[in-house]
TrEMBL record:
It comes from the Eukaryota. Residues 188-291 form the Methyltransferase type domain. The keyword Transmembrane applies. The chain crosses the membrane at residues 20-42. Gene3D superfamilies: Vaccinia Virus protein VP39. InterPro entries: Methyltransf_12 (IPR013217), SAM-dependent_MTases_sf (IPR029063). PANTHER family: S-ADENOSYL-L-METHIONINE-DEPENDENT METHYLTRANSFERASES SUPERFAMILY PROTEIN. This is Methyltransferase type 12 domain-containing protein. The keyword Membrane applies. Keywords: Membrane, Transmembrane, Transmembrane helix.
Length: 345
């Protein structure tokens, strides 16, 4: 079977000529045409999607003070990360939300629900009845994956430090910004307690990049049995070691830190042990860029006198940079921080 197409050439007086096309050839042509159209459509769509996807990926998701913050993974890929501190725009925004919602500073009764309980009442219930378990029988039959003392469940440990628990965010923002912290940085805290500050570092840093030396067993119980599980941070695997002798061998002999800090801890440590700790820490601080921050006081220097203290610091390879006053974002409060660096490799 064949189809006849008339072909006309303008200005030609000769008889019309026909082109014979077989049906299989026509079908093949149609198939090729369809394939070509599909290919062109797919190519255009793919390019459009790729552009859209790459554009969305290249747009910075985190900007602080006009600067995009990046981190690199083990393969050298660059990713945007969370800003290190609250910006003025953030504060202005939340103030507007408070104003627009008609919220005011007055006593609020934050109790609601079917069966409200204060922390004291919750703790009494835990002690009087069966704690957190609905299962009768010995502890060995308790099906709870990680048994947790009632004192931790009602967060009594959040009141152990004399200042609002929320102040930990203030400390994190100040220290992180001061050293231009990145997720791949390494941080050592002397006396992390129940992670009032440490939680923020753990959340921001890469796994196992936060280390702490803590002597109080109850605080460590709160860390491992409540704070890390409740915050979903067990996967970060921070290295937290029990000790009160300024022995840092368990952290590894080759580890050096971008930041070492102690928040009010040196208040409770004998001067001699403080100097022992500083001597051991000096070699673990990254030269030049690494920093040691001590809050509230440097009593070991004030007791020695400025000149003698400077000499001893110099003998350790440490240099006093200066004192900083850091204001709280959440309450009328400030802290003094003393900054040191290692001035030689």
């Amino acid at each position: 079977m064949a189809l006849l197409f008339s072909h006309y050439s303008p200005g030609t007086t000769s008889s019309n000529k026909g082109i014979v096309v077989t049906l299989p050839a026509l079908a093949l042509s149609a198939l090729l045409g369809t394939a070509l159209l599909f290919f062109l459509f797919f190519t255009i769509s793919s390019n459009s999607y790729s552009y859209s996807y790459s554009s969305s990926c290249s747009c910075p998701s985190s900007i602080q003070n006009g600067v995009v913050v990046y981190s690199e993974d083990d393969n050298g890929n660059r990713n945007t990360v969370t800003p290190l501190r609250t910006t003025r725009d953030d504060v202005d925004w939340v103030k507007r939300q408070i104003h627009e919602n008609g919220l005011h500073m007055h006593d609020n009764v934050l109790r609601k629900g079917i069966n409200p309980r204060t922390r004291a009442q919750q703790l009494d219930d835990f002690r009087q009845y069966k704690g957190i378990s609905h299962y009768e029988g010995a502890d060995s039959n308790n099906r709870t994956a990680l048994p947790c003392p009632g004192e931790l469940l009602v967060e009594e440990h959040h009141s152990n430090y004399g200042e609002p628990w929320a102040g930990g965010r203030d400390v994190f923002e100040f220290l992180a910004q001061s050293v231009k912290l990145r997720p791949e940085s390494r941080v050592l805290e002397i006396g992390c307690g129940t992670l009032r500050v440490g939680l923020h570092f753990i959340r921001y840093l890469n796994p196992a990049h936060y280390h702490c030396l803590e002597r109080d067993e109850l605080s460590l119980m709160a860390v491992f049995r409540y704070e890390l599980p409740s915050q979903g941070l067990l996967y970060k695997k921070p290295l937290i070691v029990k000790g009160d002798d300024m022995d840092f061998n368990k952290f590894g002999s080759e580890v050096t830190y971008d930041l070492i800090y102690a928040s009010a801890v040196f208040l409770h440590i004998p001067d001699k042990l403080v100097w022992v700790g500083l001597e051991r820490l000096a070699s673990r601080l990254k030269p030049y860029d690494g920093r040691i921050f001590v809050s509230h006081n440097i009593k070991f220097c004030s007791r020695l006198g400025g000149v003698e203290c400077s000499k001893r610091l110099m003998s350790l390879g440490l240099e006093y940079i200066g004192t900083h006053t850091h204001d709280s974002l959440l309450f009328n409060h400030y802290e003094l921080w003393f900054e040191f660096r290692r001035f030689k490799a």
